[in-house]
Each structure stands twice: as C-alpha cells, then as structure tokens.
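[audit] Reproducing an earlier prediction to check determinism. Same input, same settings, fresh worker. If the tokens differ from the archived copy the diff job will pick it up downstream; this log only records the rerun itself.
[audit] input (207 residues):
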Amino acid sequence: MLLDFTTLPARDRYKLLVSTVVPRPIALVTSHDDAGRVNAAPFSFFNAMGADPPLIALGVGDRRGEPKDTADNIRNHQRFVINLVSEAIAEPMNVTAIDFPADVDELAEAGLTPVPMADGWPPRIAESPVAMQCVEASTTHIGRNRVILGEVVAMHVDDALIDMDKLHIRTDALHLVGRMHGAGHYVRTSDLFELPRIRVEDWRLSR
C-alpha cells in the first residue's frame, strides 16, 4: 500500500507517522517565562541527535498558529530542562499534558517536586531519574513544527543509577516509558535483549 503524504490531510499524516515511529522517548520539559513562572509539558517528538557537541532534538508543534508555551519560553530564554519519564511518574506526566491556562503550575497539579537550580535555570523534577540542562542551539520553524536543537550542558542522574567509576548508567533500572500510537498508548522499556555489534572481520569469517 503506497500512501502519498503529499495528498493526505495533516491529521492522517500525523496518525500514520506516530503509529510507525515507535517507541518514542518522552521529554518532560521544564521552562520558564519572563515572569519566572515555570511551565512543564511532555513531548514525544524527542531524541538524541549528536554527541560532540551533545545535542537533543525536540519537536514542538504550534497551537492555533502560535508557539506553545515551551517553544516561546525557549525562544525567549534559551534554557530548558529535559526530565526523562519513568513508570513511576507516567501518570503525573500525563497530568502535565493537560491544556491548562498559562498561569497554572503544572508541576503542582501533577504532584511533582521542582528542584531549584542556580543562575536562572528552570527547575528540574526531583522524581525524574535523569534530567538534562539544555541551551538552545537553534530552532527551525517549518509549517506548524518548531524543531528545537538543544546542547546538553549538564546532566543530573539519580545516584543509584550510575557507576561513577566507569560512568555506566544502569539503563535497565531507569524504567523509562515510551510513547506508542494514538492517544494514551505507551510502552515499558524493560523488555531488553542484546545484539552485539559485528566486526567486519568476524562477519567475513562467518560466511
């Protein structure tokens, strides 16, 4: 079945895209406005895009032709924090996705704990196993999409989840969740399997 995206309505393109690019990690982004009010919102158009410098990409769609609070705050202040979402905070994360008015504190509504940070940064979330402080590197506005590239300048990791000697993260203990198709469908990341990389020499010997 060939599906021509140039002729499909936007809603159908969205449905097909989010049903096939799965699972998607979730960034629960904290940012702040000019008055210092903190905004928290989850986004699953999110991933790591590079290591030198360390880059993440965040896709934030416009709302009714205007930038969402997250995109507006990042544009105005260039600093934001990505809090990764574990099973333990999946339901609170879902609360922050509610379309609250701008003056509502999403973290308070969700029962999540803000951890203040110095030098004008928005807070990280105490219950998140990993939080990344990011500085806006660039934003590209295409149609109703704003693709934000952020450089990670610091990372906060739960002490129980990292071996500081080797800088190994206990990935299996993060218990992160990912976004699947449609509204309300998620996946756990606990079903792991290992598939070692193959050296070209070993591949040739095996043939």
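[audit] rerun output stored. Observation attached for the diff report: The radius of gyration is 19 Å.
[audit] end
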